[in-house]
Design a protein that fits this description.
This protein has about 100 residues and is mostly helical. It contains 3 helices and no strands. Helix content is about 35%, strand content about 0%. It is elongated, with a radius of gyration of 30 Å.
Length: about 100
């Protein structure tokens, strides 16, 4: 990188040679992998595990992956609950 700028190389988003080659080969035989996964996912004759995997793969193309979040607490004020109750009267006192 010259002075903090990208110089040369492919333009962002341009597929590399192998990716472009594979896309052309699949197009030549009429194969659309996304459509294939959708067909497998929608076919109720397939096992639920396979269908779920296909739906999960397809979802990656539409929705961002969720990241785990960490919940941090500060050393702020703490709430303490104290419950005082009188003992039960009579025979219920031994329960």
């Amino acid at each position: 990188m010259a002075s903090g700028r990208k110089t040369g190389g492919r333009i962002a988003g341009t597929p590399n040679k192998k990716t472009e080659e594979l896309a052309q080969r699949l197009a030549a035989i009429g194969c659309d992998p996304v459509e294939g996964m959708a067909i497998i996912a929608m076919d109720e004759a397939n096992p639920p595990e396979l269908r779920g995997r296909m739906f999960a793969e397809l979802a990656q193309y539409l929705y961002p992956k969720r990241r785990a979040t960490e919940i941090k607490t500060d050393n702020g004020p703490k709430v303490v609950f104290q419950i005082d109750c009188d003992p039960l009267p009579g025979p219920l006192a031994t329960v």
